[in-house]
Amino acid sequence: MTTTTDRPVQEASQTPPAPGGSPRLSDRGLAVAFISPALLLLLGMSVFPLLWALYLSFTDYSATRDVPANFIGLRNYTDILTSDQVRIRALTTLIYVVGAVTLQTVLGFAIAYLISRRTKGRGALTTLFLVPMMLSPVVVGLFWKFMLDAQFGVINSMLGSLGFGQVEWLTRQRTALFSLIVVDTWQWTPFIMLIALAGLTAVPNYLYEAASIDRASEWFRFRHITLPMVWPLLLIAVMFRAIEAFRLFDLVYILTSGGPGVSTETLSFHVYKVAFLGFNTGTASAYGILMVLVVIVLAQFYLRYLNKLKEG
Amino acid sequence: MAISIDEAVPAPAQAAEDAPAGRRRGGTARRVIEVVLLVALAVAMLFPVLWMLETSIKENRDVYAVPAKFFNFDFTTIHYKDVFVGRDGGRSDLSGSFLNSVIVAGASTILATVLGVPAAWAYSRFTLKAKKDQLFFILSTRFMPPVVVVIPIFLMYRELGLIDSKLGLVLIYAAFNVPFTIWMMKGFVDEVPAEYEDAAMLDGYTRLQAFRKFTLPLLVPGIAATAVFALIFSWNEFVFAIFLTSSQEVRTAPPAIAGLIGGTTVDWGLVAASAVVFALPVLVFAFLVRKHLVAGVTLGAVRR
């Protein structure tokens, strides 16, 4: 090792470390030096705030009053878990998450399947379909708000020329949540499409060729070759979307502000109202901790599955 | 980065071509239906974007026309001028917000890259205790609901005097981008054989020098792609921006654009124009990294 002649000049004075204990030790030091700054930032900006929220969730603290926080035990949690209001918001969130993710999955997979059967122009088509996904939720929310406007919105205008009456998309109890689901579907269908497409194009050709020799029907090929090959990736995409939909806030804020009434008030939006309009910081923290628990459970499923997929 | 999606996505099975002759007619009809469906879906997906573009160049009275005018509207660039030039002829508030967005997104991306890339390299190269758990922990911090995290962050920033400051936004965006950067970069580092560094170390370089001189240059395209995604995430972010900033000097573009619909009358032409100006850089950047989109949008978790 030390006899290497073409060692770089600037290194000449430095003796290469002897094999054995010391390089390992320096590796360890290097690893710590490289990893700890990133981890410190995460501890300071993610973990510490969550621990603080956990502490606040056991108190009646309010961010606007100058009164020190009183420890009230689990009262915030029992209040939340027994409240009818929260049950309604949880149901709204559930309808929204299931509705939006189902629609996105069906549409996204359908588009991916159709694109994967084209030979020409697939790149251009894929790029075009991906545009909504890259836009900020603010832009998406604002723009759909304009298009869904009851008086001069283009959607009602088109429905009008087809002979339908005007629909108050965002200001009626029934249609508001539906509109929210439609807008989210519009934005995130490309996400499912992109990942489904990655799965579809990874199916090896020889499987189809073999099926073709066996005169297998189109449906058989789809059911027994395409679907099993794409399913794992698709599930990843669906879980990812479910987590994102569960924590969605910006679209609700811009499109409906939770209204009319509380018909589009998801759990995320309700936390915001309790924390920043009601200033019940303690209660909002308890809410937040419960939401984080849900997210952690969902994320664990997601990561476990991802891990299994990588090893398998 | 000049590889098109056609190359990045391998050609699919064209089994339909091999179908026996008897089925061919059914195949043609089916193909027509498929193309029609695809075109219909493409129109539905793209219409809102086109409508936004069109609204941004329409005279105000055509913007509110009922029934909507699709083609025969009067053209104007006044909305785009309003985005950048204020009523008094000086710089508009919106253009100031765009500048803030550039600064905040840029600085947080740099910070996330500087912290994330070395960490990703270390996670890729060294055997560490509970490495998998550490990596999963890192990614799960990214899944926290922003509206929940913002409550304690708000209180913390109030203590530290970081409320309504660019530094505060930069820090929280960096913290949200670091998990992504580590996961995405670890994939890129894994692709560079560790033997390069071993060979360099045999030549007498230290581990750190081997990383800097041999691995790092090979990682540059990956770092660029990762940074672009981090830039897009910070640029589009809304929840932290609206709760942690209030003054015009600090406010970034997303809350500023959302603020345009606060009043009693809404200038939708201006909203459309500023949305276009805001979205255009994102689309350009996304197009540049289209090869890495699958990894990028899944936070580096899914790779092909």
UniProtKB/TrEMBL annotation, chain A:
Every ABC transmembrane type-1 domain range: 90-302
Signal peptide interval: none
Alphabetical UniProt keywords: Membrane, Transmembrane, Transmembrane helix, Transport
Membrane-crossing segments per the record: 30-55, 94-115, 127-147, 188-208, 229-249, 284-303
Subcellular location: Cell membrane; Membrane
Ranges annotated as biased composition (Polar residues): 1-15
Chief place where the protein resides: membrane
SUPFAM superfamilies per record: MalF N-terminal region-like, MetI-like
A Pfam family: BPD_transp_1
Topology with respect to the bilayer: Multi-pass membrane protein
UniProt keyword Transmembrane present: yes
Family stated for the protein in its record: Belongs to the binding-protein-dependent transport system permease family.
PANTHER family: GLUCOSE IMPORT SYSTEM PERMEASE PROTEIN GLCT, TREHALOSE TRANSPORT SYSTEM PERMEASE PROTEIN SUGA
Protein name: Sugar ABC transporter permease
UniProt source species: Nocardioides potassii
From TrEMBL, chain B:
Name of the featured protein: Carbohydrate ABC transporter permease
Localization (cell): Cell membrane
Signal peptide from the UniProt entry: none
Pfam families: BPD_transp_1 (PF00528)
Lineage of the species this protein comes from: Bacteria, Bacillati, Actinomycetota, Actinomycetes, Propionibacteriales
SUPFAM superfamilies: MetI-like
Membrane topology: Multi-pass membrane protein
Membrane-spanning residues: 32-53, 98-123, 135-155, 167-185, 214-235, 268-289
Keywords per UniProt: Cell membrane, Membrane, Transmembrane, Transmembrane helix, Transport
Residue stretches making up the ABC transmembrane type-1 domain: 98-289
Primary location recorded for the protein, binned into one broad class: membrane
UniProt entry tagged with the keyword Secreted: no
UniProt region (Disordered), positions on chain: 1-22
InterPro entries: BP-dep_ABC_trans_perm, MetI-like, MetI-like_sf
Low complexity bias spans: 1-19
Entry keyword annotation includes Membrane: yes
Cited PANTHER family: ABC TRANSPORTER PERMEASE PROTEIN, MALTOSE TRANSPORT SYSTEM PERMEASE-RELATED
CDD domains, sorted: TM_PBP2
